[in-house]
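__Record contents__

***
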Amino acid sequence: MNTLHFKYAVEIEKTRSITQAAENLYMAQPNLSKAIKELESTLGITIFRRTSKGVIPTDQGLKFLDYAKQILIQIDNMEAIHSPDKPKNSRLRISVPRTGYISKAFSEYIASLDTPEDMEVFFCETNSLRTIENVRENGYDFGVIRYNTAHEKYFTDFLAEKNLDGKLLWEFEMLAVMSAEHPAAGADVITYSDLSCNYTELGQGDDSVPYVSGAVEKLYASNRPADVPVRKVCMYDRGSALDFLLTVPQAFMLDSPMPASLCGKYGLVQRKCAFPDNSFKDMLIYTSGHKLSDNELKLVNRLYEVRNESAFAEYK
């Protein structure tokens, strides 16, 4: 199996066009198409299908591409071992939850850098278990995981099992985030039970706890009347989630406090939301013995700064 073909497939996924991918890879389109057919034949699956919106991965293709990206990262890591003259700290890989204060801190960190010519940064927004996998198995420098404090022991034990260390980034209560046009935006008191009974909840798909199946679902179900149907839409992309909140003004999501500047930018409000066990932690995680580089420390310090800005944002 030619790992160069992995790079070809990842480029097609990114561009959604074999023609554009071939141009980006500086190769002829027929040669690229032939390489992908050879790869599909070797794997015994169909990776892509043509649609009116371009070339998109099949379900099996998405699984393959996920593994292909991990393999390409590992190859990069191995090549870096043999490049002693490469400038230090030019590469950074972090894996984090989908949340406003972290994305803001990351953007401001990048803007502040004196960028080396070969800088390469991977910023992955995903769930906590995938972040643990990224840091433990996929070459990520560090990550941020989020969990309810009721599940802390499970995560603590799981990190120890994976030989990972953790450091508290933030302990907070979830807020209800919604459009300024939401019917409950002006309410003095908001409960999760009232919101979930009357409005559509936008979930972020982070519903896994080590060793315990369905733990997060049970936590939220305990705060909602049993006879009320579940109205929940899960999205795994933060940008799409923000668009959804603005397009569907009767939707809401639970999130850590956001910087006031982001709320103003996207026309959102955040309100205190009462429900039992509303205590969450964001934890920095990294492999045991890992010493943060200067650039990594700069990003972590920026995370704490934006956290403080978010903690003092105004909300009812």
